[in-house]
């Protein structure tokens, strides 16, 4: 009757409409959501300052980073992985995305390990069966558990330190991170193996997800994973129920700018505190050619990252990274760097606008400070050719 606080744990497992329903239980409720990997829409809300965000970066004492490997399936490797875990008296999760694949996986395990004690778990089993299997696994009566993603959250078993993930490209990025987090929950080294079939063709997005997850080399990478997820899938719609997706019609930078302006007005922040950006019109081509970066979502993501930079050093780092990734940048792409350099300097000097004109440049200051104008004219007179 006096409800004041709702805590939503594993927030990524809830839909937008479910969370909205909880919010409507009482007016002025305090809501705390917890997640190792917030969904893109939630993360975007924190970027827009619609909700506050706190990061818990301190891992439990003696906790080690789970070592993650991407590998091609073969019986001998699987046998070695399972044997190594059994030798240190540990247990193993073997996860597959589809219930229909469990039977095939079961036959493989029986073929490699005829004597191994294992059980199966998935969402179509009765609750009593699931509880009994969990209990047996917890009491170490079984060494290996074949399951679907049903185990992705809520399990804290310190003796399970190896997880094999079959067909990992069928899982989402945050799902893979959650599954990987089921092992290494003590001071013992945990291992996660992402297993691909031979001669498999997978799309670029799925490959990107696997690269990101297999490159995690430190604890507490959930926020980084969620940020990559936001980049890959887009932030969805903060006023609708779409949890991910790119705002292609408006353009991401403009969408961010519009929402931030509205939020600042609602919070009665003075106009000068709103973000502003100098306009630079120097009349040469600047764009990322479609032939150079084929994927439209990736191009928009690069534009957004570049447009949010406020320091020249950061700009240099991003462009070094882009050259490493894509090779030599075309002239129109390099021009973006030049213009952004001018833009960053202009913002520091409170220059609102620079226009090209036949006899030179027209410069407009944000604040009409006569000192600035006098200094600029003095520099121009001393260096007329430049």
Helix content: 40-55%
**In this structure, how is the largest beta sheet organized?**
6 strands, parallel
- Strand tally is 11
Query: How far is it from the N-terminal to the C-terminal residue, by CA?
Result: 74 Å
Note the total helix count: 13
* Global Rg: 27 Å
Going across the biggest sheet, name each strand in turn: 3-8-7-4-6-5
Main structural class: alpha/beta
* Mean pLDDT across every amino acid position: 83
Write down the secondary-structure element order.
EHEHEHEHEHEEHEHHHEHHHEEH
Approximately what portion of the residues adopt beta-strand conformation? 5-15%
The parts where pLDDT drops under 50 for at least 5 residues are none
Overall geometry comes to elongated
Assembly status: single chain
């Amino acid at each position: 009757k006096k409800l004041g606080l709702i805590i939503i744990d594993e927030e990524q497992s809830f839909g937008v409409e479910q969370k909205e329903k909880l919010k409507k239980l009482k007016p002025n409720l305090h809501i705390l959501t917890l997640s190792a990997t917030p969904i893109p829409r939630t993360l975007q809300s924190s970027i827009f300052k619609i909700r506050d965000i706190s990061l818990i970066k301190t891992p439990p004492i003696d906790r080690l980073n789970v070592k993650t490997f991407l590998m091609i399936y073969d019986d001998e490797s699987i046998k070695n992985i399972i044997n190594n875990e059994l030798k240190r008296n540990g247990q193993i999760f073997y996860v597959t995305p589809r219930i229909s694949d469990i039977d095939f996986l079961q036959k493989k395990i029986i073929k490699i390990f005829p004597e191994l004690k294992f059980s199966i778990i998935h969402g179509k089993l009765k609750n009593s069966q699931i509880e009994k299997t969990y209990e047996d696994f917890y009491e170490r009566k079984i060494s290996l558990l074949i399951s679907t993603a049903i185990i992705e959250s809520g399990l804290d078993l310190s003796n399970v330190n190896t997880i094999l993930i079959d067909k990992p490209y069928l899982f989402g990025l945050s799902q893979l991170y959650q599954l990987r987090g089921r092992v290494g929950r003590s001071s013992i080294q945990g291992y996660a193996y992402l297993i691909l079939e031979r001669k498999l063709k997978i799309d670029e997005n799925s490959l990107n997800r696997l690269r990101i997850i297999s490159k995690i080399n430190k604890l507490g990478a959930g926020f980084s994973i969620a940020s990559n997820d936001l980049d890959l899938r887009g932030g969805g719609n903060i006023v609708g129920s779409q949890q991910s997706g790119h705002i292609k019609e408006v353009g991401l930078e403009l969408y961010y700018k519009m929402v931030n302006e509205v939020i600042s007005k609602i919070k009665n922040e003075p106009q000068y505190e709103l973000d502003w950006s100098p306009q630079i019109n120097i009349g040469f081509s600047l764009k990322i050619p479609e032939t150079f970066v084929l994927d439209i979502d990736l191009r928009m993501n690069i534009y957004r990252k570049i447009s949010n930079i406020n320091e020249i050093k950061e700009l240099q780092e991003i462009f070094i990274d882009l050259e490493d990734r894509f090779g030599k940048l075309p002239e129109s792409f390099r021009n973006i760097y030049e213009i952004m350099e001018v833009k960053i300097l202009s913002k520091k000097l409170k220059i609102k606008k620079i226009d090209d004109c036949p006899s030179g440049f027209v410069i407009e200051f944000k604040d009409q400070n006569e000192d600035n104008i006098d200094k600029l004219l003095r520099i121009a007179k001393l260096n007329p050719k430049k």
